[in-house]
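If you are new to this repository, start here. Below is one unmodified record pulled from the training split, so you can see the exact layout before writing a loader.
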Amino acid sequence: MTLNSIYSLLHVVSAVIWVGGMFFAYVCLRPTAAQQLEPPARLQLWAGVFNRFFPFVWLSVILLPLTGYLMLFAVWGSFAVTPLYVHIMNGTGILMILIYMHVFFAPYKRLKLAVAAQDWPAGGKQLNQIRNLIKINLTLGLITVIVASGGRFYSM
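And here is the target side for that same chain:
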């Protein structure tokens, strides 16, 4: 197994965990929790889910650019000669990381404080902001997966 194979494996697994986790949370868990749980229980559930999921996202946020750049420089040597799909992946990836960092350091922090204080309206406001940002990140993540998996097969 070559170093690029290891980088590729870590890269793909990190993307699957992050994007797959967002898909599950947004498409499956969110509507079910909204139907079955009252706001206090729903907010406590989400604070707990994020508490367990976000360490994996942090690992992904570290591994994705690290392995991506290691592969980029090993294969092409510089950004100047990389195909367009690699530039698109890089751009959407950076944007996703910035959005995640905002979620983590702003509305998620405020959500935890609101849940601890049992301030359900404030917690609901933060959860709604997180939901909207996850929708954006999930869309960017799915676009990135499409570009990553198909980009090398097209002349871009």
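Two things worth knowing about this chain: The chain has a mean pLDDT of 96. Residues 3-153 form one domain.
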